[in-house]
Amino acid sequence: MQIFLSKMKKFITLLYLMTGVLTVNAQKTYLEGKEIRAVWLTTIGGIDWPTTYANSPQTVERQKRELTYILDRLQKVRINTILLQTRIRGTVIYPSRLEPWDPCMTGHPGKSPGYDPLRFAIDECHKRGMELHAWIVTLPAGKWNGPGCQNLRKKHPSLLRKIGADGFLNPEHPQTADVVASVCQEVVQNYDVDGIHLDYIRYPDGWKIKVPRATGRENITYIVRKINRAVKNINPKVKLSCSPVGKYDDLPRYRSNGWNAYTAVCQDAQGWLRTGLMDQLYPMMYFKGNQFYPFAINWAENSYHREVSAGLGIYFLDPHEGNWRIDEVKRQLAICRQYGLGQCFFRAKFLLDNVQGLYDYLRIWNNQDLLPTTLGGLPPLPSDAGSGNKQRAQIKITPRADLPFLENNGRYLTLPPKGKTLDADILIVKSLTGVAVATLPYRGTHASIEKIPAGIYQVCSLNRKGITHRLGYLEVKRR
Description:
Helix content is 30%, strand content 20%. By secondary structure, it is of the alpha/beta class. An eight-stranded parallel barrel has the order 2-3-4-8-9-10-12-13, surrounded by four helices. Strands 17-16-19-20 form a four-stranded antiparallel beta sheet, with helices on one face. Strands 5-7-6 form a three-stranded antiparallel beta sheet, with helices on one face. Helix 3 runs parallel beside helix 4 and helix 6 runs parallel beside helix 7. About 12% of the residues have low confidence.
């Protein structure tokens, strides 16, 4: 007992040496800016927007009102980022010198709606304090005889490959990068977008990859690099992001079942963050249970101080799409916030339809601005906490005397016994502000902590339902 009290005294002294009051903005996303709360707003077939074709002054206004109504409702649940599908399948929703109008706006391929939907959407988002990122579908060109594919085949006959009934730009042809980069360049030159969001920047489904996977990854990275240069040379403030496959790669204890970004489809998404080719990622994490939580933590641990938002498959809440219950999404939201990940919903309609009460829940969840629980708990952020906000929450940490410092020798942590009720098989080592710094297997009696820097941490267990329990504190000493 005397040893524990001595360590606790040292712990409190250390906190007061750090000014006695710990100044934080909360988890990583709050420290670096506002928490990303995004939706994919789909235009293909008008499945999110528009549902009205613009073929007269009256229908143009109706189409515009549909969008403003959507944005008003998204604003009420504090969505701050709209990923608007701008390039659909070699077709676009703005007047372009490169590609034809998509039929979603008028019902007729190649026909203008009589106004600029992209410019209108940007203006309306900015009025509401929202960012608009132009969502660019990169390699799919749609039906082989469709307007987008026909246009590309006419201009670049050697670039298109047919898979089933659809055409795709060839990721192994260097000119493909120029075609996609020119579309992104056109958008950034002509519009005040906040970001360019790349979709399907990978090998197509059904493509037999005959090159080594390392070569395949370089082929895709070459396209990303070209786009990055095209965008940043015009406006370096425009954020470049993409939506990779939801699991980066197999983890030591959890397999991706053959469907991952790095190996299966040659997306080195974490490498793009590390090298600065991407500013943000929105991995499509449309999974649950152990196919979500360990992989979400992996994204958080490999963010390289950039923004990562988990794409949540809320469409599975619809009984026609899947069998998810809302509790699964609630747990996923909690894990996202706990580990500094933003949230991105696929897709807007399922959120606005309030499937299983999700919209109602978000009105409470996002208006609380709750931070992850740390020592003694953290109060809510100021309601205007966000990018550029200089106000910082002054948070006093109250150590919990009922939780011990866990024994370690600087190389190995002595694991506390699980008992009969704890089903966890992962330990999460977190900073005092709740940011995960490492994951450890929870088996046996010891776990290696050699890669953890010197400092004081909290250690939590994580079970299969995504529920965490704080086990104690860890003081790592390095000579």
